[in-house]
Every structure is written in C-alpha cells, then in structure tokens.
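Researcher: Before we compare anything, I want clean individual predictions. No alignment, no superposition, just each chain on its own. First chain goes here; please echo the sequence and then give the structure tokens.
Model: Echoing the first chain and its structure:
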Amino acid sequence: MKKVIIIQGMSCEHCVKRVRKELEKLENLNVLSVEIGKAVVEGDVLKDEAIKEAIDEAGYDVKEIKDEYEYHENIHEGHGHHMKHKKMHHKGHCH
C-alpha cells in the first residue's frame, strides 16, 4: 500500500532531509520520495498516527494523508476543472 503525505511548513532541501530521516526510522515503511510539501511511502501496514508523529518530530505538520489512488483521483479532478477553464478562456469567456 502506498500513501501520499501532504506536509505543511517545508521550504527547502534541509526540510526534505529532516522529514526523510524521521520517516526512515519507522518500521515496515519504505520511503519512496520526499519533496517540499509531500512525501510518498509504502508498506504493508501503514499507521497514519505513526506517520504524523514522525513528521511532527521532524518539526512539520501533516495536512493530509491519502492512499495513492485517492491522491491521483483528486489530481485528475483538478485537471478537469483546469481544462474546462482553459477552453472557456480561449473562447473569450471566463467563469
């Protein structure tokens, strides 16, 4: 199972390293990626509370934890709105 963690307060590569370091301390969790504002992890049993505690220990706040499928669904929905807006704008209309 993969989870996407949306993190507030990160602003530089130092932040990325701190978050990665704390997440890597968790058992049965593989850190796939960490970037400013987001981390992706995977494992058989991922406990949101343990993830939140690790991020808190690094000095940041978890805004949201979603499974990867749910995260990608939300991204695609947002793109649909953007494309609708773009089409309307090219016709000279805007909502």
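Researcher: Okay. Second chain, same rules.
Model: Second chain and its structure:
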Amino acid sequence: MVVEKRAEAEVKAFEYNAKEGVRAVAFVWFLRRIAYPLFFVFLSAVFMAFAVNGVVAGLLCLAIFGGPGLLLWGFTSRQGQKVLEYWKK
C-alpha cells in the first residue's frame, strides 16, 4: 500500500515535470520565433510612422498596433511567470 502510494506520487511528479518542461520549451520557442520579431515589427512601425510621417500618422499607427502589441505582451508575461515559477521549484 505504501509502495503503491509512493509510486503514484512519483508518477504524478513526473507528469507535472513533463508538462511544465514542454510548456517551458514551447514558450522559449514562441519567444524566439514569433514574439520577439512581432514586438520588433510593431515598435519599428510605430517609430518609423512618427519619424517619417509625423505625429498624426504615428498616433494612428500606435492605435492600430497597440492592441495586438498589448495582447502579445500580456500573453508572454503571463506565460513567462508560469515558466519562472516552475524553474524556481
């Protein structure tokens, strides 16, 4: 009975570590391949709109890219916190 409970606890710990490990790897892949380039494109588009076309175009570009940029920031920060919590354990 004790051995079975111990084995069950080890299986649960292994499943948790596997799930969180996959989450961490997927998050790092997402950051490197998708999130960082999108942040760069959003910020460079807003900067270039301000620099080349003026304040009105810059604000319009900020209004267009601000929403998706904030969604992307919120998703990456939340997932980053989960990955950091796992790595601290």
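Researcher: What stands out in the second chain?
Model: The CA atoms of residues 27 and 79 lie 7 Å apart. Additionally, The mean pLDDT is 89.
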